[in-house]
Amino acid sequence: MSERVRIDKWLWAARFFKTRVLATDSVLAGHVQLNGARVKPAKDVHVGDVLEIRIGTIAWTVAVRALSDKRGPARVAATLYEETPESTAARERHAAERRLARPLGADLGLRPTKQDRRRLDALRRAQRRGS
After folding, report:
1. Residue among 69, 50, 89 at smallest CA distance from 11
2. pLDDT (tens digit per residue) in 29-73
3. Which domains occur in the chain, in start order?
4. CA separation for the pair 50, 39 (Å, rounded)
5. Which of 109 and 8 is assigned the larger pLDDT?
């Protein structure tokens, strides 16, 4: 392993992004910060650096523990970084909020059956009466 790796390669190897192009685009868009500063995709990452990564609405704050420029198994990728406790708590809180904010009937699947549709209509009628 080398002492430094490009940030886009490291993000790809750590499995934050499916492709290196996605990692590069995210860094260019400013969704990834290295030690609190916006960087370019060619910036080198060192062990001990702190990365703030935003993917959609999810934010990660991780400390770099090891370097790799090759994508390997998920178990190996998980050893490349350590997420801060605050970041873990915020992600779990965000996931719980999203679960609770699901629209009525979202758990029924893609296309409801006739029985599902009747249950959904009954739920909506009950909700209108209660409002």
Report:
1. 69
2. 999 999 999 999 999 999 999 999 999 889 999 999 999 989 999
3. 5-100 (3.10.290.10), 103-131 (no CATH)
4. 13
5. 8
Token representation of residue 125: 């009628």
CB 40 within 8 A of CB 57: no
Angle, CA 19 vertex, CA 13 and CA 59 arms, to 5°: 75
Whose tokens are 């029924």? That residue is 108
Mean pLDDT score, 106-115? 76
